[in-house]
Amino acid sequence: MSKVQLPVHKNETVTGTVLDLTYQGNGVVKVDHYPIFVPNTLPGEEVTVKVTKVTKNFAWGKLISIEKKSPDRIDDPNWAYLQTGIAPLGNLTYPAQLKFKQRQIQKLLEKAHLNLEVAETLGMDQPFGYRNKAQVPVRMVKGQPTTGFYKRGSHDLVPIEDFYIQDPAIDQTVLVVRDLLRKYQVPAYDEETHRGVIRTVMVRRGYYSHQVMVVLVTNGEHFPHVAEITREISERVPGIKSIVQNVNDKRTNVILGTKNHLLWGEPTIHDNLLGIDFTISPLSFYQVNPQQTERLYQTAIENAGLDGSQTVIDAYCGIGTISLAVAKHAKHVYGVEIVPAAIADAKQNAANNGIENATFVVGKAEEQFAKWQAEGLKPDVVIVDPPRKGLDAQLIEATGKMAPQKVIYVSCNPATLVRDLQRFAEQGYHVTKPIQPVDQFPQTTHVESVTVLERTEK
Ligand SMILES: C[S@@+](CC[C@H](N)C(=O)[O-])C[C@H]1O[C@@H](n2cnc3c(N)ncnc32)[C@H](O)[C@@H]1O
Predict the structure, then answer these.
(1) What residues of the chain score a pLDDT lower than 50?
(2) 452 touches 384 (CB < 8 A)
(3) Which of 35, 86, 111, 191 would be a feasible disulfide site paired with 81, CB 3.0-4.6 Å?
């Protein structure tokens, strides 16, 4: 078999213009239509690149020099942030990041020949320091337990103190814990030997409540100097409400184990979202950018046009954030979610907030939709907030049969959104407003949006 002749080979130096930015934030340089993906390059830039990896359909390159810079470039982006994936768009100005996200959706719509408008991305005034949760790996570096972040695609720790997109109070808390681990010489976990004690430091801080939870993830029950470390954290961290040891003795990339020991304070913290009080435990899912989550869900709820008389389904409801906010404006809300613990949280949160017109069910949304449809449930509005893989075709069909007037689609993946919009069209649902991107994760490539669909005749 003859070998295919590729336009470039490994270690070759190529010069060219960056034509596009992929959904992962890499620049694209082409040689005879053959793409080379180059991290930290931006559209319009003229660059010199060294080819580092070649495959049949594309290559990877490393930036050597920029001959012409993009006006959208942030000079001297923090290389550690780009490299670790903390801020893969950290080399782009914020207005350009917002345009990039709008454009991601537009490009996919064009590819699918869907002539739909996409509104400008709703961004943050302060697009950093927004995360209310950190999960920071701990490794031995030069003989010291050290906190930082993994280099993208690896488990090499890059030591970092300012995590840039996390609440600065969380960064401070991580440093307090790191210094105590150093003071008491608690060995960090070693993935290769499966030895050592501390694997991860997780910190959560309520955006409105300012309550702080510290979770120390250990490789087994053994935790030397736990009493001293706990006492010092409780004395030094402002707003501390809860200190928990989580045991994870498995050889796994999964961060948290299933066993928690309360070391100090309360087992949970509280925060508010859309005026609802939420109880957050170490294992609970909770949105990580509360300010933008409020905007995203507010946009979804406003578009639902509720006046208290409607029946609403909230599919993929998680801990019921949307359901509980909608309940105030609806006759009844039905939520479905696959994770039993999330539904337990949703029910508890409903009770704590005195909400009685919400029903939560554990199950696969696609199966539950078929059941609801068979039982004759007639929702006026269906809200969906699926994971990245989007909606199951069965769920879209069942929605068509239940015939709600509106479907509000909250999406975290424009590719599956576009696919699902085409499937909804087959059920007689059409997009009636510009798709609204909301920037939930500034400095990263994640694209979230709200789409309003209405039933027209098939
Ligand atoms: C984007 S999150 C929605 C979060 C939710 N709106 C909240 O605020 O808590 C997607 C949710 O879908 C759930 N999920 C994934 N596959 C599912 C399925 N087939 N049926 C129901 N829920 C599913 C996940 O566990 C996750 O909670």
Answers:
(1) 1
(2) no
(3) 86
Please enumerate in sequence order all residues whose Cβ is within 8 A of that of 123, keeping only pairs 6 or more positions apart, or say none.
94, 95, 97, 98, 439, 442
What rounded mean pLDDT belongs to the chain? 95
Query: What confidence score (pLDDT) does residue 3 get?
Result: 66
DSSP H helix total and E strand total for the chain: 10, 22
Say what the pLDDT of residue 102 is: 98
Q: In this structure, what DSSP letter does residue 2 have? A: P
Query: Residue 371 CA to chain centroid, in angstroms?
Result: 30
What's residue 80's pLDDT? Answer: 78
- Residue 78 CA to ligand 1 centre (angstroms): 34
Residue 237 belongs to domain with CATH number: 2.40.50.1070
Q: Is 339 in the pocket of ligand 1 (CB under 6 A)?
A: yes
Helices 414-426/393-402 angle, 10° precision: 40
Q: Which amino acid is at 115?
A: N
Q: Does one domain contain both 363 and 422?
A: yes
Secondary structure (3-state) at 3: coil
With a CB cutoff of 8 Å and minimum separation 6, the contacts of 153 are none
* CATH number of the domain enclosing 66: 2.40.50.140
Q: What's 370's domain CATH number?
A: 3.40.50.150
Residues 6+ apart with CB under 8 A from 208: 271, 272, 290
233 in any annotated domain: yes
pLDDT score at 457: 65
Residue 434 is predicted with a pLDDT of 98
**In a domain? residue 107:** no
Nearest to 416 by CA among 372, 375, 442, 449: 449
Is there a single domain that holds both residue 252 and residue 347?
A: no
By annotation, the residues acting in catalysis are 412
The pLDDT, as a whole number, for residue 458 is 53
Distance CA 389, CA 96 (A): 27
Number of domains within the chain: 3
Residue that the structure tokens 């019921």 belong to: 320
Residue 18 lies in domain: 13-71
Structure confidence at residue 43 (pLDDT): 95
Q: Is 384 in the pocket of ligand 1 (CB under 6 A)?
A: no
Domain co-membership, 319 together with 441: yes
Q: Using a 6 Å cutoff on CB, does residue 287 contact ligand 1?
A: yes
Q: State yes or no: 179 annotated in a binding site.
A: no
